[in-house]
Amino acid sequence: MTYNMTIEQIKSLLARFYEGQTTPEEERLLADFFRREDVPEDLQEDKQLFLLLAQTSDQEMPQDIADEIATFVNNLGKSDIQPLTHVSQQRKGVIYRLKTPPKMFYRVAATVAILLAIGGGVFFHQQTYTTDPFRDTCKTPEEAAAELHKANAMITKASQQCLAPTRNAFEQVEDTKEIINKHITF
């Protein structure tokens, strides 16, 4: 393999790899590039991914797991999924992926739904907790004065009702003191 590819070409090939549009030969080119020591700093995470893929591609999948996956995929019945081949027929390092990536519409719709749910929650929260109990409900100063007089009358009436039993109790205490003073002589 030659390393005459520029960094821009590698990045373009890498973007095609993540979209599932590379050939096995192009994937080998990428794997060879990322085995080098002089990989640019902005591609270090991609290098780690390719090194990990290289390590795991050397491991053979157990037959029972391969059969189970093949059965599962074949039962899906969708034409956009590549069928698995028998383990002995598989090449090491081959990555199976969807032929067509999920539609962008679904991603956007899910994002919009999440944002609407969060926005609705924030809006509801603000509506329930921003109502000012001391807001001005009167339109004119005369109306405010009339409401103030009504409130004052209600408070006066309530306080008089509370004070009446207290006055009665105070009078009974005074009567009791007079009776006690009459009977006690010093």
How would you describe what is shown here?
The protein is mainly alpha-helical and 186 residues long. Helix content is 65%, strand content 0%. Helix 1 crosses helix 2 (24-34). The relative contact order is 0.05. The model has no long low-confidence stretch (mean pLDDT 76).
Q: How helical, in percent, are the residues?
A: 55-70%
Poorly predicted sequence stretches spanning 5 or more consecutive residues: none
Strand content: under 5%
How is the main sheet built? none
What is the terminal-to-terminal distance? 126 Å
Radius of gyration computed on alpha carbons: 42 Å
What form results from the Cα inertia axes?
elongated
How are helices and strands ordered from N to C? HHHHHH
Global structural class: mainly alpha
Number of helices: 6
In total, the number of strands is 0
Mean pLDDT: 76
Count of the domains: 3
Architecture blueprint of SSEs:
Elements: H1 7-18, H2 24-34, H3 44-57, H4 63-76, H5 104-129, H6 141-183
Helix pairs in contact: 1-2
Offer a few descriptive terms.
mainly alpha; 186 residues
In short:
With 186 residues, this protein is mainly α. The chain is 65% helix and 0% strand.
